[in-house]
């Protein structure tokens, strides 16, 4: 079984959040402290950023799981299943 990669979300302040990979490299950073942020919409913007960061944080694990699912399908001749073809296209698009 593949070892899942762990990324970590770090909240530096109420407005600044970053994601670090398993080697401590910054994957992305976001700041919501700008002229569009007000007391009225601050909580909503924080929730949106939090949801997006959870998705980004989970993406390496989702890719690993997708690869394993495709591999299992292909073992049993499923490489021609439309969903497996789409999954392989997505994997190839993401990998560098």
Can you describe this structure?
The protein has 2 helices and 3 strands. With 96 residues, the protein is an alpha+beta fold. It has one domain (8-94).
Please count the helical segments: 2
> Biggest sheet, strands in spatial order?
1-2-3
Low-confidence stretches: none
How much helix, percentage-wise, in residues? 40-55%
Taken together, the total number of domains comes to 1
What percentage of the residues does DSSP assign to strands (E)? Answer: 15-25%
Which structural category fits the helices and strands?
alpha+beta
Largest sheet: 3 strands, antiparallel
The count of strands amounts to 3
Secondary-structure element series: EEEHH
Radius of gyration: 18 Å
- Give the mean pLDDT: 87
Distance between the termini: 22 Å
Overall 3D shape: elongated
């Amino acid at each position: 079984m593949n070892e899942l990669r762990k990324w970590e979300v770090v909240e530096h302040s109420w407005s600044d959040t970053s994601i670090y990979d398993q080697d401590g490299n910054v994957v992305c950073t976001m700041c919501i402290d700008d002229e569009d942020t007000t007391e009225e919409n601050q909580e909503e913007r924080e929730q949106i950023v939090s949801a997006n960061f959870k998705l980004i944080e989970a993406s390496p694990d989702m890719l690993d799981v997708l690869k394993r699912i495709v591999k299992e399908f292909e073992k049993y001749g499923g490489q021609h299943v439309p969903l497996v073809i789409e999954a392989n296209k997505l994997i190839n698009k993401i990998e560098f």
